Amino acid sequence: MKIFRSALFLTLIPFLFIKCKNETKPETVTSHKNTVHYAKGFSIENYSGYSVVTVKNPWPKATKNYTYILKEKNGIIPDSLKKNPVIPIPINKIVVTSTTHIPSLEMLNVEKSLIGFPNLNYISSEKVRALIDAKKIKELGNNQSLNIEVLLDLQPDVIIGYGIDNNNPSLDNLQKSGLKVMLNGDWNEETPLGKAEWIKFFGALYGKQKQADELFTKIEKDYLKTIQIAKRATTTPTVLAGDMFEDRWYLPKGTSWGSLMLKEAKSDYLWKETSGTGSLSLSFETVFEKAKNANIWITSGQFSTLKEMTDANPHYAQFDAFANKNVYSFTRKKGKTGGILYYELAPNRPDLVMKDLVKILHPELLRGYQPFFFEKLK
Prior knowledge:
This protein has helices at 2-9, 102-107, 126-133, 148-154, 169-176, 192-196, 199-205, 209-230, 257-264, 284-291, 306-312, 320-323, 341-345, 350-361, and strands spanning 42-47, 50-55, 66-71, 86-88, 94-96, 114-117, 138-139, 141-142, 145-146, 158-161, 181-183, 238-241, 243-245, 248-252, 268-269, 279-282, 296-298, 327-329, 375-376. The protein has 378 residues and is α/β, with parallel strands linked by helices. Helix 8 runs parallel beside helix 14 (350-361).
C-alpha cells in the first residue's frame, strides 16, 4: 500500500459519508453530447430522464469499457440499455474507496452522504474527519478485502471502486451480493486537467452536473492562466524529483502528469525524455550521476526536514539542491491521523499545484503568493 501511494505521488504524483436528503432535483437534459473534454477515462452522455456514464480506462491497459445508467425519477430507459447497471439518482448514500474521491464530494457539498471508507486514517479532510469523529462513517477495512457484512448493513446507493488491474475479487463479491459498484479511474489519467475533470463523474451521481461543470471550469481557467504566467520566465531551472524507497529511487516518467506539470511550469525535468505515465525505479548512482547539479529537488513527501533526509541516507547531502537548501516537500500538510493532504487533494486541484510549482521555480512571477501544498525543507 505504501509503495502504491508513493507511486501515485511520483507520477507527481504516480496515485469517504452519512445519510442525508438531497434537496436538489436532478437536472433534466436532452442533449446526448459527451460533456467530458480532457479526461480520457470516462464520458457522460445526457438524455431526457437518464444519463449514460462510460468508464473506459479504469486501470492501465484495460481491455473493456464499463457502462452505467444513471436514472432520474420517472425516467424511462430504453430496453437496449437495461443490461447495464442502473443507478437511481440523485444518490443519498455513497461509499468511496480512494481519498482522491473525497474532494469532489466536498466541492459539491455532499460529503455528508459518505457512509463508509477503507482505512479511515488516510483521510485528511477536516470536514470528513469531523464526520468520522461523530461516528457517521464506518471503517471498511482495505480495498482488497472490503468488509462485506458492514457494506450490506449500510446499503449504500453506490460504491465507487478503483482497481490497479483486472483482479479485484472484493468488488466482484460486492456486486454478487446485490450492491451497486461503479469503477473510477481518475488516478490513471495522463493530464492534470484530465484528473480534475472527474468531478463531473460525481456531479452526475448527485444530479449536480451544472455545478460540477462550473467548478471544473474555474479550475481549468486558473490552471491555464498560471501556465501563461510561467511563459514569462527568463530561466529554466533543472529539477530532480523523488527519493529512495527500499534501495530504489522512484521518480516520475517523462510522459506522466507530474512531468507535464513541471514542463508547463517552465522547468527542465531531468528525466523528461523517458516514456510512460508511472514511475521510474533507478539506483542511487544512476540518479546522482545525472542530477547532482540539479537546481531544485522536489521530494516524494517522506521527509519534513533536511535532517530527516540525511538520517535516512547521508548521501542526499551530496546533491547541489540539498547543499543549497532548494529541497521542497508537501509532507507537513496532514490530517490529524497522519493522512497527507497532497495525495487527497492535489489530483483534484491542479490549479493549486501549478501555482505552487511556478512559485518554487520562478518566485518573481507570483509575488505575494504562498504555496498551498509545498514548502522548502529546513
